[in-house]
Amino acid sequence: MKQLILSVCFLFSISVGFAGDNDWGQTGHRATAEIAQSYLSKDAKKEIAKLLNGKSLAFVSTFGDEIKSDSEYRKYGPWHYVNLPENATKYIVDDANPDGDLLMGIRKCVEVLKDKSSSKEEKEFYLKMLVHFIGDLHQPLHTGRGEDKGGNDIQVRWFGDGSNLHRVWDSEMIDSYDMSYTEMARNTKVLSKAQTKSIASGTFEDWMYESKKLSERVYASAEVGEKLSYRYMYDWFPVVGEQLQKGGIRLAQVLNEIFD
């Protein structure tokens, strides 16, 4: 399948920067997808099963990271994040990275999946990417600052070991909690129908700015070189859980709209 995307370049605009090597890590992405599975409509479940040849959303949720080692797919690197200028309140397409960003990537996936002329191969690829990207959108530092590569340049200590703020949020808090993705998915907040509906409402851009607002709190949560451990987990792991749950509910909402 030909992928008609421009090669990666770096411009200091709305989408410049790096999001890091991982995004939520395997457990986080799988938990998001597992949560989404429980909110899918019957029609969406049926169509998704056809496209994925019976594989689960959780199984394919890490595909977007797994292909990074293949040079054929390196052009999708910028699609994992969107770095917005400080105090930005509007996404300006003309200022966006021409190589794409997270918001553009999500919209491209939806476009291909809705297009009746798209091949099964194309739809399968972009479905896997969409599952991954919606997860990325809810990791706040994937909407972080370009100048510090989404927190990758903010060096901290995690339980005594060298790390950075982005990695702590991607995987280290989740890994330290030592739960499987199914355990994490099952141990989310009990929500009313009204609460679930409220979370599922809004646009991709709304969700992006919600994540960006959270990223500002995350940046303020630690100083360079700070030693983070149990207290940081106590303060912030509940927020991680909320983001995974929001990502799952919203992923299901997007997929239901596509396949119903």
UniProtKB/TrEMBL annotation:
Keyword Hydrolase: yes
Biological processes annotated in GO: DNA catabolic process
Statement: the UniProt record of this protein carries the keyword Signal: yes
Signal peptide residues on this chain, from the entry's feature table: 1-19
Protein name, as recorded: S1/P1 nuclease
InterPro entries linked: PLipase_C/P1_nuclease_dom_sf (IPR008947), S1/P1nuclease (IPR003154)
GO molecular function annotation: endonuclease activity; hydrolase activity, acting on ester bonds; metal ion binding; nucleic acid binding
Lineage: Bacteria, Pseudomonadati, Bacteroidota, Flavobacteriia, Flavobacteriales
Keyword annotations: Disulfide bond, Endonuclease, Glycoprotein, Hydrolase, Metal-binding, Nuclease, Signal
